[in-house]
TrEMBL record:
Pfam families (UniProt xref): FtsX, FtsX_ECD
Compositional bias annotation for Low complexity: 1-15
The protein, known as: Cell division protein FtsX
Chief location category: membrane
């Protein structure tokens, strides 16, 4: 009895050991097929260099255009935000306000919560600056006195329009200058440009998706017999679809990297003349490209676009050719 009681336990323990082995075998086969599909997709691209270059080039240009527009708008918006003169309010005091009184008024304004900084320019400083930069040295030297008033240049912390209205009510103020119209127009153009970038991204992204889909469709047509044999042998749609998905992913990843290379080349070609132009206006503004996170997101997004395009085309083909049970 003891021997018969022990014998059924032996097959049970063997089955218990076999189940993890079979599970590991399935996982290993699945991962091996993924690796093989990825490597094979690059091999197919290398074997068709001209077709691959055309597909990747079209995708890269389609991706680079909206990305370049978005980068340009980001730099313009950053430049507009860096130029503090865009928000400064100039307060010309009455000519009868003494310099000491103007300085005391500047101190009172600095204590306000809605004021970030106040620069006080005396009439003498204004006259010297006008001689140096205005080209009116000979004309101004003939004046008996200094007709310029004290000037307060106020940088707001919040709404510059509201601050300008408040400063215009000061009894010492003669003229308050604040041109917000151009900034509002600039903001409107930036919003329009951002919307245009999204529209172009959608249209050109759809075009890139079609390019990948058409390339994968041609590859499917060349492997019709192979796919038919796999279907007859009982291969699942996922097994058949997987190499084409990695093919689309490979196209997208390489196209995304090429798009970044094109934008980097454009950035390098424009950086020097733009820096020289900015220095002529007394600014140290320089173009800012894509960071590592943005670059990684662009490449991964392009790969996802290629994956989706390949998946749509392959899924449509498999739904049409899948054998039906009769």
């Amino acid at each position: 009895m003891s021997s018969t009681a022990r014998n059924p336990a032996a097959p049970a323990s063997a089955d218990a050991r076999a189940r993890p082995a079979r599970s590991r075998s399935r996982v290993g086969t699945w991962s091996d097929h993924h690796v093989y599909s990825l490597v094979a997709s690059f091999g197919r691209m290398v074997r068709k260099p001209w077709s691959t270059a055309l597909t990747i080039g079209v995708m890269a240009v389609a991706l680079a255009l909206p990305l370049g527009l978005w980068a340009a708008l980001s730099n313009i918006e950053r430049f507009a935000g860096d130029v503090q003169q865009a928000r400064q309010v100039s307060v010309f005091l009455r000519t009868d306000v003494a310099v000491d009184d103007a300085g005391a008024l500047a101190e009172r304004l600095r204590a306000r919560d809605d004021v970030a900084a106040v620069e006080h320019r005396t009439p003498e400083q204004g006259l010297a600056e006008l001689r140096d930069t205005g080209g009116l040295g000979d004309t101004l030297s003939g004046l008996d006195g200094n007709p310029l008033p004290s000037l307060l240049i106020v940088t707001p912390t919040g709404d510059e329009g509201l601050l300008a209205e408040t400063l215009s009510e000061l009894p010492e103020a003669e003229i308050v200058q604040h041109d917000a119209a151009w900034r509002e127009r600039l903001d409107g153009w930036l919003r329009f440009g951002g919307r245009l970038a999204w529209v172009l991204a959608a249209m050109l992204g759809f075009g890139a998706l079609l390019v990948v889909g058409n390339t994968v469709r041609l590859d499917i047509q060349q492997r019709t017999e192979e796919i038919g044999v796999l279907q007859l042998l009982g291969a699942t749609d996922g097994f058949i679809r997987r190499p084409f998905l990695y093919l689309g992913l490979s196209y997208g990843l390489v196209a995304g990297a090429l798009a970044l290379a094109l934008l980097t080349a454009a950035d390098l070609s424009l950086r020097a003349p733009l820096a020289e132009l900015a220095r002529s206006y007394g600014s140290d503004f320089a173009l800012r490209g894509f960071g590592l996170q943005h670059a990684a997101a662009i490449i991964l997004g392009a790969g996802l676009l290629g994956w989706i395009g390949a998946g749509l085309v392959t899924g449509h083909y498999l739904r049409q050719t899948r054998p039906t049970d009769t």
